[in-house]
Amino acid sequence: MEYLSYITLFFGFYCMYIFYKLQIKRDLSANGMLPREVDPGKCKDKDGYIKGVAVPILILGVVTALYSLVDILRSRLEIPFLTPLMWALMAADLAVLVWVVFVLRKNNQKYF
């Protein structure tokens, strides 16, 4: 099941890329977090949306990448102390994911 760790690692880096596109380029069109039926050009307050969404997406990306890196190291090197760390990061990743979903839903309703 190590290939799933690589997929989650890619997702973590993708979230960091979305943060880059939001913060640096101010581009909502590359945001994979918008619903399909939403037109990015019809955002009521682009800066407010970016301010409300960018940091949670970055936190999700970092936590997901850390979790998948620890899981890859644990499965490759079989270091015993990495297993509890992996489970803690998995729980943190799940909690951050739920938090980001609520933040995205709130900001999508507020600004679109």
TrEMBL record:
Keyword line: Membrane, Transmembrane, Transmembrane helix
Organism for this UniProt entry: Ohessyouella blattaphilus
Source superkingdom: Bacteria
TM stretches of this protein: 6-24, 52-73, 85-104
Protein known as: DUF3784 domain-containing protein
